[in-house]
Amino acid sequence: MAKIAFTVLWAGVLMVVDRALDGVTWAQYLAIFALGGIYAFTINKLPESRNKSA
Fold first, then answer.
1. pLDDT 10s digits, 1-53
2. What is the DSSP string of 13-35?
3. What's the rounded Cα separation, in Å, for the pair 24 and 44?
4. Measured by CB atoms within 10 angstroms of the end CB, which terminus of the chain is less buried, N or C?
């Protein structure tokens, strides 16, 4: 559940950053690349779901 909540929250962060950097294409690419790396690192550090019945 933590990973799903974090993913939804992170999508909001990406949308805000993308909108803030509108018109500066190189900055958008750089920010999305950096935030993608941070997301990948963080999502792997979050605990797994305790109930793996699926």
1. 888 999 999 999 999 999 999 999 999 999 999 999 999 999 998 887 666 65
2. HHHHHHHHTTT-HHHHHHHHHHH
3. 30
4. C
